[in-house]
Amino acid sequence: MGRAPQHASVDYAGKIRIERVPMVDGDYDPGGAYWGGGLRTLPLFVIWSVGVDADGEGIEYFERGESREDVKRSVRARYPKARFYR
């Protein structure tokens, strides 16, 4: 279910993008991964890094939230040195 997360170190200081994932048939992303859901499920967002950390690790994971700003607060708590697009 979903997709495997990839995380950089907490010291990641590069740029991060956050985008809402459009759902197909309610419970699937455009690539066909199943996320579950239903009528009251929060929107799904993808979080990914534009660069990599000192160890060559990037960021790509998914999180549900009421809004992009809610998810951004969560990401900022995990990666306090990161910068964001928009």
Task: Write up what this structure looks like.
By secondary structure, the protein is α+β, with helices and mostly antiparallel strands. The protein has one domain. 13% of the residues lie in helices and 22% in strands. It is built from one helix and four strands, in the order βββαβ. Strands 3-2-1-4 form a four-stranded mixed β-sheet, covered by helices on one side. It starts with 14 loop residues before the first strand and ends with a strand.
Strand order of the largest sheet: 3-2-1-4
3D shape: globular
Taking all residues together, what is the mean pLDDT? Answer: 92
Poorly predicted runs: none
DSSP helix count?
1
* Count of individual domains: 1
- The termini sit apart by 30 Å
Number of strands: 4
How much β-strand is present in the residues? 15-25%
**Helix-strand topology string:** EEEHE
Relevant terms:
alpha+beta, 4-stranded mixed sheet, 4 strands
Could you give the topology of this structure?
Blueprint: E1 15-20, E2 44-49, E3 60-64, H1 68-78, E4 83-84
Parallel strand pairs: 1-4
Antiparallel strand pairs: 1-2, 2-3
Please give a quick description of this structure:
This protein has one helix at residues 68-78; strands spanning 15-20, 44-49, 60-64, 83-84. It has 86 residues and is α+β, with helices and mostly antiparallel strands.
